[in-house]
Automatic annotation (TrEMBL):
Pfam families: Methyltransf_12. The lineage of its organism: Bacteria, Bacillati, Actinomycetota, Actinomycetes, Micrococcales. Transmembrane segments: none annotated. It comes from the Bacteria. This is Methyltransferase type 12 domain-containing protein. It comes from Agrococcus casei LMG 22410.
C-alpha cells in the first residue's frame, strides 16, 4: 500500500469518477482471476456467496421468488452476482461504469450460457441509460461509498422500478467503515458523517487476490444509515426492511476471521459490538 491515510478533498464528480473508473478497470482482470470465474462456466448450478445470502431475504418480499422477473443489477462489476441471479430465474440486466468489468461479465455470460443484457453507464445516470422498467432493482455489495449524491441515486432507482417493484441493497455498514481496519482493536478513526468532501486514497491493492492496480488513486464518500434511508424515502419508496449483519464477503480488516462459508467476521469477542453490513428492502407504491 502506498498511502493508508486518506485526505479529505474538494473534487468535481467528473474528475473523481474518471479516477475511480481507471482503478476499477484495473481491478477487472485481477478479480477475474481472484474470483475464479471459470467455476461459473464449469458448474452451471453455482451461485455466488453474495447472492446465496441475499436471495432468501429478497424472496421474502416477492410473490413467487425471482422466476421470470425483470431485474436490474446496478454496479454489477464482473457479473458473478448477475449471473447467479439469472440462474435463480430472473431476466437480468447488469449496469456498470467500467468497460473492462463489463467485458469480463459479457464473456462470463457467454461461457456460462446465460442470457443477459449489459449497459455501460454511471449508476447516477441509470434511468437515461437503461430502457424499460424492472420488477427488481438490486445492488450488493461495496457500492454506494463510490457515489457522492444519494438523492440522485435513489431517484434513479425509483424511476427504474415498476409500480410495486422492489429495491434491494446489502452493503458495508457505515459504522464499520468508520473503524481503523489496521488497529489491534475496534477503534474509530474515519468519519461516519459526510462533510461534503471526498476521502481520497492511494492504494495499489484490491480487496480480492494479491494483484496490484496501476491506477491507485480513488475517491469515496461516507454515507450514514440515516442519509441512505432518507434518500430512498425522498424518492417515494416505502421501506419494508432494515437489517444489520455480522459477516462480510471480504476481509475488511486483517483481524477478521474466515468462516466456514467463506465469509469474514470480527473475532467472537467483538462480533456483537459493531455491525458489518446493512440490508434495506424498499418498494415503489
Amino acid at each position: 500500500m502506498d498511502d493508508l491515510e486518506p485526505r479529505h478533498v474538494d473534487i468535481d464528480w467528473s474528475d473523481a469518477r474518471a479516477a475511480n473508473q481507471l482503478n476499477w478497470n484495473d481491478r477487472a482482470s485481477l478479480h477475474e482471476e481472484a474470483y475464479g470465474i471459470e467455476r461459473y462456466a464449469n458448474d452451471r448450478e453455482l451461485i455466488s456467496g453474495v447472492v446465496r445470502e441475499d436471495a432468501p431475504v429478497l424472496s421474502q418480499h416477492l410473490n413467487a421468488g425471482l422466476s421470470s422477473l425483470d431485474l436490474l443489477h446496478l454496479q454489477c462489476h464482473i457479473g458473478t452476482d448477475t449471473i447467479s441471479l439469472a440462474r435463480l430465474g430472473a431476466r437480468v440486466t447488469g449496469l456498470d461504469f467500467s468497460p473492462a468489468s463489463l467485458e469480463v461479465a459479457k464473456r462470463l455470460a457467454i461461457e456460462a450460457d446465460i442470457t443477459a443484457d449489459w449497459v455501460e453507464a454511471d449508476v447516477l445516470d441509470a434511468r437515461q441509460a437503461v430502457s424499460g422498467d424492472f420488477d427488481v432493482v438490486y445492488t450488493s455489495i461495496g457500492t454506494i461509498i463510490w457515489l457522492p449524491d444519494l438523492d440522485r441515486w435513489a431517484q434513479q432507482i425509483a424511476a427504474l422500478l415498476r409500480t410495486n417493484g422492489v429495491f434491494f441493497i446489502r452493503d458495508g455498514h457505515p459504522m464499520m467503515y468508520a473503524l481503523d481496519e489496521e488497529a489491534p482493536d475496534l477503534t474509530l478513526r474515519w468519519g461516519y458523517f459526510p462533510t461534503g468532501q471526498a476521502q481520497t486514497w492511494d492504494d495499489e491493492t484490491t480487496y480480492a487476490g494479491d494483484g496490484k492496480v496501476e491506477h491507485t488513486r480513488t475517491y469515496e464518500w461516507p454515507h450514514p444509515i440515516s442519509e441512505i434511508i432518507t434518500a430512498l424515502l425522498r424518492a417515494g419508496l416505502v421501506i419494508e426492511r432494515l437489517d444489520e449483519g455480522q459477516t462480510l464477503p471480504w476481509r475488511f480488516s486483517p483481524r477478521m476471521v474466515e468462516l466456514e462459508d467463506g465469509d469474514f467476521a470480527w473475532p467472537d469477542s467483538e462480533r456483537s459490538i459493531v455491525p458489518c453490513t446493512f440490508t434495506i428492502v424498499a418498494r415503489k407504491p
